[in-house]
Queue: 2 jobs
Job 1
Amino acid sequence: MSQSIDYTERIPNNVDLAGDRRLQRALEAWQPAFLNWWAEMGPTLDTSDVYLRTATAVGREGWAHFDHVALPEYRWGVFLAERDEERKIAFGDGKGQPVWQQVPGEYRAELQRLIVIQGDTEPASVEQQRRLGLTAPSLYDLRNLFQVNVEEGRHLWAMVYLLQAYFGREGRDEADALLIRNSGSEDSPRILGAFNEETPDWLSFFMFTYFTDRDGKYQLGTLKESAFDPLSRTCEFMLKEEAHHMFVGTTGIDRVVKRSTELMREHETEEIAPYGGIALNVIQKYINFHFSVSLDLFGSETSTNAANYFTAGLKGRWQETRRKDDHLLTDDSSEIEAMVDGQLNTQQVPSLLALNHDLRTEYVADCQSGVKRWNKVLEDAGLDARLFLPHVGFNRHVGLFSGSKISPSGEVMTDEQWAARATTWLPTPEDKTHVQSLMQPVYERGKIANWIAPPNQGINGQPFDYQYVHLA
Ligand code: BYC
């Protein structure tokens, strides 16, 4: 039986909030601050309502309900996956012991830090995407943007619930601070680099949902393994919502590539900018940028923080329980690629230190699946050009490659060589201006902008020309 969600409460939840008056009051005190933040930092386009899905139960069946909803009235709430009474710690020093229902004193600071970092990314992405509604290529895309936004808002609720329920006064202060930091702010920026970058156009949005949301999937996957059971259950449910965000990215890029191939064939040239398309080399530059910025989100390839989190049972590996080893890793070593004496080389390091690298490797393999899809679109169009992921050392600012200049194909460069080629690898101001110039809103039912192909199907069985959004 799946646990249903109580929507008669001011804060919808499946954690019996009414049974904990103190916590309920704390969250009800935070709610107006959240709604203020949404009004000020959330979507700028005025809409009457949007065809959104809302969670109704956390179980396998029937958790989503679709309806037209006014955005500020979306029912943000606290939803945890069901508790498994038998669940045991799967890794680290506490392996085999029952999972924790409370925060152990000795890990309080680390757990709080992980939850704050995770929580910080969620509202950041809403802030980054707040103006995109003004230039949506179709009502279908506009609806998907808002679906992503409201769910990122709910993911903030998920982390704020943990902070307020389990971390006392400090947790409440951190919950407040999550609404005070802002993406790109000079004085109080968001914590991780990628969340202070701009998402100024829809190509960036699709890249962000493909590459950066996918980091979210992998980080949440490791927190789902946590010995701190409420964190694990929260992340498990967040991952279900997250899948749609990556779908938006994958199919968004599919459709841009498809439209570009159509324009290339129609006009028999790769230079499709004059015809209102996005050239493949510009798409490649956007991939290069978003992939490299997202790799930085994994932290350094060798990390004592990551080793400590693992040994303590706070953060596991991707699909920890399916791994065929001792889940302690104290005697294991791993091979990583690093700069050694100015050359790219492999190094053996203790596996415990290489956990960020391990997660990043899983992530890169997953990213590759999209590239394969996009290349299939090119192949089907009879074109020879191919897209690719750049080398993991390309354009890095965090970790063992930061400070080195490495080309997308993995050659070590001098600063001068890099400077001479950088404009062919990363989006230039001209590329961005051109992409920006294509971003003219199309709000007419069933119509779509010229630079992107329509989707193969609509949302929840509705056709593409459904009235997904009513503008104000
Ligand atoms: N930017 O040992 P190191 C998502 C700092 S996305 C700035 O290498 P560690 C979403 C680090 O804090 C997923 N600073 O790293 C997506 C440390 O500082 P201190 C978000 C950085 O700790 C789309 C120092 O460098 N969730 O959900 O092993 C839309 C050395 O650190 C960065 C998480 O990330 C950076 N990129 O790993 C919406 C999960 N990287 O302590 C949502 C929670 C490192 O020396 N976070 N530093 O002052 C973590 O697991 C880890 O904190 C990190 C870093 C993976 C981020």
Job 2
Amino acid sequence: MTNDQRSSLIRLACEARTNAHAPYSKFLVGAALLTESGEIVCGCNVENASYGLTICAERVAFGTAVAAGHRHFQALAIATSGGHPPCGACRQFAAEFCDDLPILLIDSDRPDHVSENNLRELLPGRFEFPQPM
Ligand code: THU
């Protein structure tokens, strides 16, 4: 990932966060995913009156990217107030496509404050579909 791509990811994750539909939790999340080919695909959390139907920003981003034909990714940026890490479901969702993945956690209140993680560290013991014998 180049410095320009990193800056764009951070900016676009913050922008996507402002589109979150989170009238119940009021917790806005934006995600920006850098594809292997250098495109950036975004997502935000989309809540529902039937709470359990809510979908996280990260899974919206992965689903949108996959629907556009992307299967390989260079990095994921997540913007929240406080710079929180992704939930377990989103870690497993990312692991479907990425052996490892740099994950930038952005505090949207201080977008210059970015902590860098990676998927391997955040998700030890991922579930992998058992291969038939
Ligand atoms: N949320 C995400 O978008 N990503 C995560 O990784 C954790 C949680 C959303 C779901 C819900 O709309 C709100 O944050 C509070 O849980």
